[in-house]
Amino acid sequence: MKILVTGGVGFIGTNLIKRLLKDGHKVVSLDNYSTGKKENEQKGCKYFDVDLRLTKDYSFFMDNPDVIFHIAALPRIQPSFEAPSITFNSNVVSTQNICEWARTNGNIPVVYAGSSSIHGDKYANPYTFTKWLGEEVCKMYSNIFELPVTICRFYNVYGHHQASDGAYCNVLGIFERQFKNGEPLTITGDGEQRRDFTNVEDIVDGLIRVSNRLTLFKGGHIAGEEFEFGNGKNYSINELADGFGKDYPKKYLPERDGEVRESLCVDKKAMKEIGWKPTRDIIKFIRENYII
């Protein structure tokens, strides 16, 4: 198949493209490289430096793709407080541009990367609010224009190619860098906030399953639907840090604004309808990849 991936040099996009290439697909990536890295580029994929906020016609990059994976976004809660306008344009305007192009080019199926953060207070931070608005844009295009779009919500994704520095890295990426440098692991608040961590390879498997249904059945019964990709088990940040060794030094920092106390995927729809099942555990991942 011909597949267009937005955010292809980011964490999830890179892992997705590796899988798509392995499966024999023709892949094109659109990314502005603001948070993704050039070293994430994979042989066999064509990469274009494109600002999705400003570009509305993508035919030059790939004509008539079979499916679009819209992964591009400005992630993370804390940076969104510093740049709400950029976050809005990146996460909402770009999504509308993608959906409109897909609609006017034969209703190309779209797989949208949502966020489990919307289950908390949608107005707690610009990131959560804009990811929720992105979903609403997708639902509007599905309801009014019958665009075959499916929303996939992710729970605290971790794994290979995750960022380990900069404002957009996740908690495991931060721990990874600190552990490798022999520094204390920094924990915000009391560390008892709990998160449902999902390995990126499991996320990619879910995205592929959704894409296969959308393209095989021209949308079928999953067009306009929402799927939750989470392990169904959560760990506290303290437990995550203990995975590096209970005696490894830790440093506690003040609690941050805008973050939920707990995330946990209880929705089993993805398992029932598309046969998705998470197979990896974050504590085991830490021990296998960082502990010698």
Topology summary:
Blueprint: E1 2-6, H1 11-22, E2 26-31, E3 46-49, E4 67-70, H2 77-82, H3 84-104, E5 110-115, H4 126-145, E6 149-154, E7 157-158, H5 171-180, E8 185-188, E9 194-195, E10 198-199, H6 200-216, E11 226-229, E12 235-236, H7 237-242, E13 250-253, H8 269-274, H9 282-289
Parallel strand pairs: 1-2, 1-4, 2-3, 4-5, 5-6, 6-11, 7-10, 8-13
Antiparallel strand pairs: 9-12
Helix pairs in contact: 1-6, 3-4
SSE sequence, one letter per element? EHEEEHHEHEEHEEEHEEHEHH
Derived from helix and strand composition plus strand pairing, the structural class reads: alpha/beta
Kindly state the percentage of residues in helix. 25-40%
State which percent range the strand residues make up: 15-25%
Strand order of the largest sheet: 3-2-1-4-5-6-11
Give the terminus-to-terminus CA distance: 41 Å
**How many distinct domains?**
1
The number of strands is: 13
CATH architecture: 3-Layer(aba) Sandwich
Per CATH, what is the topology?
A: Rossmann fold
Multimeric state of these chains?
single chain
Secondary structure tally, helices: 9
Biggest sheet overview: 7 strands, parallel
Name the poorly predicted regions. Answer: none
